[in-house]
Amino acid sequence: MIEDLRKGRFTLPAETGIDNEVKRIIEKWGADAIRNSDGTILSKELMDMAVKVYTTYLTVRNDQQWAYSHRDQLQMQYLMSKHNTAANEVLEIDLLDGYFNRQFEIDKDHDIKRYWEVIDRTSGELLDVNHWEFDCNTQKVVINNAKKWHRYTVSFLAYQVWDTTQMYNHLTNNWTTAPEMPYDAIHEETREHIFSYLDNWLKENPSVDVVRFTTFFYHFTIAYNDKAKEKFVDWFGYSASVSPKAMDEFEKVKGYRLRAEAFVDEGYYNSPFRVPSKEFLDWIDFVQGFVAENAKKCVDLCHSYGKEAMMFLGDNWIGTEPYGDYFGNIGLDSVVGSVGSGATLRLISDIPHVKYTEGRFLPYFFPDTFYEGGNPTKEAVENWVQARRAILRKPVERMGYGGYLSLALKFPEFVEKIEEITNEFREIHYKMEGTKAYTAKFKVAVLNAWGKLRSWQTNMVAHALWYKKIYSYVGVIECLSGMPVDVVFMSFEDIKKKGIPEDIGVIINAGDAGTAWSGDKYWVDDEVTGKLREWVHNGGGFIGIGEPTAYQHQGKYFQLSDILGVDREMGYTLSYTRHDKAQEETHFILQDQKSEIDFGEGMKYVYRVSDSTQILSMDNGDINLAVNEFGKGRAVYISGLPYTPENVRILLRALYWAAAKEEEMFTWYTSNSNTECAAYLQTGNVAIINNSDKVQETEVYRDKNSAVKLSLNPYEIKWICMEL
After folding, report:
1. 315 is catalytic
2. What are the φ and ψ backbone dihedral angles of 140, each rounded to 5 degrees?
3. Of the residues 8, 171, 277, 307, which has the maximum number of CB atoms within 10 A of its CB?
4. What span, in angstroms and rounded, lies between the C-alpha atoms of 332 and 87?
């Protein structure tokens, strides 16, 4: 490899005390930038080196003197008590029972009767404020005329007296520094202090080239339990953006007042799996507008000192939604985020309105991975190979790692492997030359209640974490992240207001019934169903996964069962006799299938509703895979689709079949499902990747009549030239 490809596009986490080792790794990994991590500092010698210097900046906890002297301006959170059953007319509710009292303190500064709510969770009734009191000494709410055997909760405000990220590091990585508290920029006094403090910091740190905001003002939702363990985590949660001041400002802007229940949401706290209410969407819009306006002031300050402004997509990222309406107003130079998969890579690399994006790859240099007997090399390779598929479609411009380099240096094999990975990353950019790989002539739309706002985030609970309930759906997005198709994210409201764009060839609806991802009540909105039926009937393709179009209504569960050709038995139609049987001949979708299909959790009790439905796979009488034609259009049903190389191929074939473009699939296509290719037509370079840990033989098709045979080593990427 030529020398130019051994340096650049890489950010190294550095720390004081190992300066010589840092210099060695800068050369070995080809770093052209160094950064500190939360809790570490860089020596003057390192900062004066001829490399770019990133420094983390924490807008709402850098000045702890301010936090401790303005405790009434700390950030707050709405919490809900446990459900308490009334055995008598008098019921006492301990508000912080089950919560970590080092994280929260009950708000006693604001009008409790104005901002708190007591709800009868048996009836859903909101209790009159005269029927309950708060005892400041016991920190309990007392209900005086409770209905016996009804359950009650209290929704209350609490100060965050320990910053979430710092608390996590104390509890996970054994930090011993003094606890820090986050202050709230909604207060004008604090907001102006944030700007003046940043201004002084910029003057005092001339060696810093890039200010890495981590991030701006509001942390995603995390509440710990009384055992100092995570109780509730929502990477998309807005619970920490709430305060009486913010609610009052919201009322001025939006013209109506929000209840506590708008935030507590029956204890679901507006999880992204919930179809968002108008109130919550209005709150998101309000917070985004506020954050963008004031984050821009921070960015402008950085620019006035000749420094770049970078945002970390995590920690305090709430309000900076990169696919929201206000993000472009901030004026950021770049975004860096953690890469835990192909989907999270695309979440970062597809972000608009920035000059460049950067991925922080795994593993994080923390003791939970870098311990005696651990295998960080294995994790690094698996993370890289999964992300590489997405990089070939839409790359981040830079890569790096995070944490404590001193830990990584104890694993020489890991150090060698990262050198290979960084060189491969640079080679990909060199071969791509900034161009885009070949994609299908049609676009794929992922349809859910969130649409564009949650691009590449569908069915996620927390950033790239595995959950049994949803891995069969996250797999769909993961498969798409490295496919030769352009993907857009569309909401039901988009369909109602704008219809379906002409360039969409296939729509995917994937998720459990009742969730935002499947759609819930949107499926009994005839404006939605009517437009979709017309579109499919005229030649569109529709793929449903799990419980698509699901809502029990008028004798049907899958409301587009006429399109899908299947429905799900909910117990109401057991009297009907069924004669479902899988067809024996091989269908186009399964022609590459060499082993048993992994449908993940799958879906029980799915059955055929149309004679035209072809059942491609069944298990114990339940349909896992079926196809159907509806007018000129086609539909595919899949019970679940975790990410595997085989499932990538099944979905790819399903997309082309649903779009009625089977022959076009063979344009830049590999015969072996463990391999994929990306063709850069403008440069004449084609990348072929092996996603497995075994040697693979494959044929690379330029078109259906032209192919070349190749052998690839485990995890290898091989480049070939084509005639232009």
Report:
1. yes
2. -120, 150
3. 307
4. 56
Among 315, 512, 520, 622, the active-site one is 315
Q: Is residue 307 part of a domain?
A: yes
Q: For the CA atoms of 678, 401, 427, 341, what is the dihedral angle to 10 degrees?
A: -10
pLDDT along the chain (724 residues), means of 10: 74 89 94 81 74 93 97 98 97 97 96 97 97 95 97 98 93 88 98 98 94 95 95 95 98 98 97 97 98 98 98 96 98 97 98 98 92 95 97 98 94 98 97 97 98 97 85 97 98 98 98 98 98 98 98 98 98 94 93 94 96 96 97 98 98 98 97 98 97 98 94 98 74
**Cβ atoms < 10 Å from Cβ of 245:** 15
The 10 Å Cβ neighbour count of residue 235 is: 18
CA 195 to chain centre: 30
In this structure, what token pair is assigned to residue 300? 């402008």
CATH of residue 359's domain is 3.20.20.80
Q: Could you tell me the pTM of the whole model?
A: 0.96
3-state secondary structure of 477: helix
Domain match, 292 and 406 both:
yes
Cα distance between residue 525 and residue 589, in whole Å = 32
**Burial 618-657, CB ≥16 within 10 A → b, else e:** beeebbbbbbbbbeebbbbbbbbbbbbbbbbbbbbbbbbb
Phi-psi region of 173 (alpha: psi -120 to 50; beta: other; left: phi over 0): alpha
Q: Report the chain's C-alpha Rg in angstroms.
A: 27
Output the six-digit token pair for 582.
């899988």
Tens-place pLDDT, residues 363-375: 999 888 999 999 9
Domain holding 677, by residue range, is 669-721
Distance CA 495, CA 512 (A): 21
State how far the Cα of 272 lies from the Cα of 460, in Å rounded to an integer.
8
Rounded CA-CA distance 507/485 in Å is 12
The DSSP secondary-structure symbol of 41 reads -
Q: Which of 635, 678, 624 is nearest to 660 (CA)?
A: 635
Quote the CA–CA distance of 719 and 427 in Å, as a whole number.
10
Using CA atoms, how far apart are residues 678 and 684, in angstroms rounded to an integer?
11
3-state SS string over 334-384? EEEEEECCHHHHHHHHCCCCCCEEEEEECCCECCCCCCCCCCHHHHHHHHH
CA 320 to chain centre: 14
Say which residues have a Cβ less than 8 Å from residue 468's Cβ, sequence separation at least 6.
Answer: 601
Which residues 6+ apart lie within 8 Å of 255 measured at CB?
none
C-alpha atoms less than 13 angstroms from C-alpha of 172 in its C-beta half-sphere: 16
Neighbours of 539 (CB within 10 A): 13
Task: Please tell me the distance from the alpha carbon of residue 112 to that of residue 652, in angstroms, as a whole number.
Answer: 55
Cα–Cα distance between 269 and 714 in angstroms, integer?
44
Q: Is the peptide bond preceding residue 215 cis, with omega within 30 degrees of 0? A: yes
Does 140 fall in a domain? no
The predicted structure's pLDDT at residue 2: 47
Identify the domain boundary among 625, 644, 665. Answer: 665
What's the chain's length in residues? 724
Same domain, 340 and 448: no
Q: How far apart are CA 619 and CA 139, in angstroms?
A: 55
